[in-house]
Amino acid sequence: MIITNLLARALMMSTPLLYGSLAEVFAERSGMMVTAIEGIFLAGAWAGFVGAFQTGSLLIGFLSAMGAGLLVSILYAYICVNLKQHQIVTGTAINILVMGLVSFLHRVVFGVPLVPLTVQPLPIIRLPFLSEIPLLGPVIFSQNILTYIMFFLVPIGMYVLYKTSFGLTIRSTGENPEAVDVAGINVNRVRFLMVLVSGIMGGVAGAFYSIGYLGMFTTSIIGGRGWIAFAICFLGNWNPIGVFIGTLIFGLAEALAILMQSQGGSFLPNEIFIALPYILTIVLTISRKSFNVPAKLGIAYRKEN
Q1: pLDDT of res. 286
Q2: Residue 125 forms beta bridges with which residues?
Q3: Arithmetic mean of pLDDT, 135-150
Q4: Number of domains making up the chain
Q5: Cβ(18)–Cβ(201) under 8 Å?
Q6: Domain with 215 in it
Q7: Which residues, in sequence order, are CB contacts of 66 under 8 Å at separation 6+?
Q8: With 80 as the cut, is the pLDDT of residue 132 above it?
Q9: Residue 21 belongs to a domain with what CATH number?
Q10: Has residue 300 been placed in a domain?
Q11: What pLDDT score does 267 carry?
């Protein structure tokens, strides 16, 4: 029973990381390093909670989260794509801005509540017959709707990226934007679009924590998980399948950390288990020997006259 619960929780905790890291794959394949991902996650978590709490609808919550992630990504794309500013510096500044803005707006909207504000999170959907399969049923077929959608995102991502002309355009934009420009395709428009897609999916990922899993919001709810999704994109070698494997590993690490904290009585302090996913990020990054980095990743495109 413990193993089954651990694996089921691992799959659930993999879900938002997959949304965020897969979106990052598409953006970085076009040459855009979306370092504002932590802020996008946090904006999505807050807007999702506010939307769901005020209306009583989780659907409105997730639509609000998508809108918030989109707004943050528009700001990032405008500064980095249109104004050609440094992507890492811009992303870091936006992350700090979103943290302060969300803290302020949360106080404006809700004041200082005496009791924690909560919403009913996404329900678990047990698929008929399939959920009764020993081990696999409780782990794979007893999840929420976003986790089920996750299974379709990876093959869709592979198909779009490697089997369509649009996917070829995305990859070429990150490898050889000059050739894309010569072909008559607007490089900056492709990059802008990919950042917007990243913002929408990142907003959903952030909302997963507030209204898909916990049913509440705090300003520390994301706690660096946006950066973990960012790292998974690198560790997965900018490939949807690699990213899927990476999210499962990190989901298992986070689920294990939650399990160990809930069990108590360990000879190790709880802080060690809380830090486990982040320690794993550092270890895997250091141990990776080579990366197939897109040639123009992080480099603004300036059209030659």
Answers
A1: 78
A2: 143
A3: 92
A4: 1
A5: no
A6: 2-123+136-287
A7: 44, 200, 203, 204
A8: yes
A9: 1.10.3470.10
A10: no
A11: 61
Could you tell me the pTM of the whole model? 0.94
Three-class SS string for the chain? CHHHHHHHHHHHHHHHHHHHHHHHHHHHHCCCCCCCHHHHHHHHHHHHHHHHHHHCCHHHHHHHHHHHHHHHHHHHHHHHHHCCCCHHHHHHHHHHHHHHHHHHHHHHHHCCCCCCCECCCCCCEECCCHHHCCCHHHHHCEECHHHHHHHHHHHHHHHHHHHCHHHHHHHHHHHCHHHHHHCCCCHHHHHHHHHHHHHHHHHHHHHHHHHHHHCECCCCCCCCHHHHHHHHHHHCCCCHHHHHHHHHHHHHHHHHHHHHHHHCCCCCCHHHHHCHHHHHHHHHHHHCCCCCCCCCCCCCCCCCC
Q: Is residue 302 part of a domain?
A: no
Torsion of CA 139, 64, 66, 156, to 10 degrees: 40
Tell me, yes or no, whether 299 lies in a domain: no
Is 205 a domain residue?
Answer: yes
Tokens of 149: 């959608």
Backbone angles phi, psi at 35, to 5 degrees: -80, 0
